Amino acid sequence: xxxxxxxxxxxxxxxxxxxxxxxxxxxxxxxxxxxxxxxxxxxxxxxxxxxxxxxxxxxxxxxxxxxxxxxxxxxxxxxxxxxxxxxxxxxxxxxxxxxxxxxxxxxxxxxxxxxxxxxxxxxxxxxxxxxxxxxxxxxxxxxxxxxxxxxxxxxxxxxxxxxxxxxxxxxxxxxxxxxxxxxxxxxxxxxxxxxxxxxxxxxxxxxxxxxxxxxxxxxxxxxxxxxxxxxxxxxxxxxxxxxxxxxxxxxxxxxxxxxxxxxxxxxxxxxxxxxxxxxxxxxxxxxxxxxxxxxxxxxxxxxxxxxxxxxxxxxxxxxxxxxxxxxxxxxxxxxxxxxxxxxxxxxxxxxxxxxxxxxxxxxxxxxxxxxxxxxxxxxxxxxxxxxxxxxxxxxxxxxxxxxxxxxxxxxxxxxxxxxxxxxxxxxxxxxxxxxxxxxxxxxxxxxxxxxxxxxxxxxxxxxxxxxxxxxxxxxxxxxxxxxxxxxxxxxxxxxxxxxxxxxxxxxxxxxxxxxxxxxxxxxxxxxxxxxxxxxxxxxxxxxxxxxxxxxxxxxxxxxxxxxxxxxxxxxxxxxxxxxxxxxxxxxxxxxxxxxxxxxxxxxxx
Length: 605
What we know:
Layout: H1 6-20, H2 24-54, H3 59-109, H4 112-115, H5 118-132, H6 138-144, H7 146-166, H8 168-214, H9 216-224, H10 228-280, H11 286-328, E1 350-357, E2 367-374, E3 379-383, H12 390-398, E4 405-410, E5 413-414, H13 420-424, E6 427-430, H14 441-446, H15 453-462, H16 466-470, H17 493-507, E7 511-515, H18 523-536, E8 541-545, E9 557-562, E10 565-570, H19 572-578, H20 581-598
Parallel strand pairs: 3-8, 3-9, 6-7, 7-8
Antiparallel strand pairs: 1-2, 1-4, 4-5, 9-10
Helix pairs in contact: 2-3, 2-7, 2-11, 3-5, 3-6, 5-11, 6-11, 7-8, 7-11, 8-10, 8-11, 10-11, 15-17, 19-20
């Protein structure tokens, strides 16, 4: 993974902010100028007071000078606070409106095959934390560091020049202090870098234990299986690891603190020696002594802030880099050609020719030189044990993943000839893990805010869910879940799967893929939905996955997968008569029902 320097990341981020808000450089510069001016005024105030006392002059002159400086100081504080609020508001808006939305767009448009891998999910989670969690540093911390870093650098240059005019040895001491402090901070930062994976793992473990212990569904098992001690012991173990890490970190920080203390003591001894000597020799008066002392004190403050901001930025950059790396990764799916979905016949012929696909983190292919032809309007059942490649084949057919080799043709047109948008128009899906968005029922079915209500109602009717929705007070405008609307509702597992089927019918794609679409239904509801599948998908080429082999009887052919290859193919009855793996699997599934009937327990299932 490519790593970027802190300076490179700051420049990259600033370009995004300026693109988001053109006024940002002006607000940033004005804030830095105000914060530079205030310490100078604060240094002039006591020097002016001393000058009034020692150099003579009227009380009117004294009040005019002091009063003017105080008014200027008060105005500077007001301007500083206002600019601070404006910059803080801008940073927060950018993080929420721009950084998070850009991340969402990237996640929704990047290659799905890359995103779904464990490494892809880990990368997305890290990037999301950097953009969405201001307490984690990331975008917010990197943006906040720009102004104090620029300001303290300018302060060092301006006040450093004044200090050098007094005695170059003061600058030499401060330079040595800077080198020592930054060197020790580097040791501390490398310790944090080296231990970061372990700390992230401990943090995940802590969150997991806390989240799982809070879930009511887990509360039953925790109590009945007496898992309380395991949870508490595991959590305390994580806390001990974090405490050990903190002790190691504090030891390293104490070394830097000790170094700074020694150098500051040396600076004070040298500075007072120089200033007192100048005063005693008549080279400066009391006012000049006071002003020079203020300059040196402020210079040290700028130096300490510069070192601290630099160290914090270098540390925050370690985590922030995950955001930029995720955003810049080149994983956009291929553009495709100019083939049009509307130009294909309905239902289409689908052909897989010697298709092979291997997941990035795997050595063995999930689909291994597989060839299969689906005739127009044919219903194919994909069956096999877990890990046989069924879901992977669905991802390839749906266009979520692309083969490593071989090709998929839709009505003789290679899938690569379609743009991603055009290919997705060809496919309607019903997955086992139905994910409904916290919007209205109508918006969920249509996939957009504005939709054809008549078409949505027709799809609900075909899926057997129309009456349920009509009985709701707000009908199609009923919100799902209460995550965004307090009057939202939750659907049962079976209703969610029927709604997913209605969504696929509403899309009216010529290729329909059903992955365990009835897992949440009871046998009677399952049989009813199968009949609807068969009736409503007559004009579609369909692929159906189910672990319940009895449900495959409504399909034209059954394809048995093992190790990413087709080992058996035929009708349900043909495969039973062959007595192969499919027949044995069916016998195992059906034996339980047979045993119940033979034992005299002929309950309705």
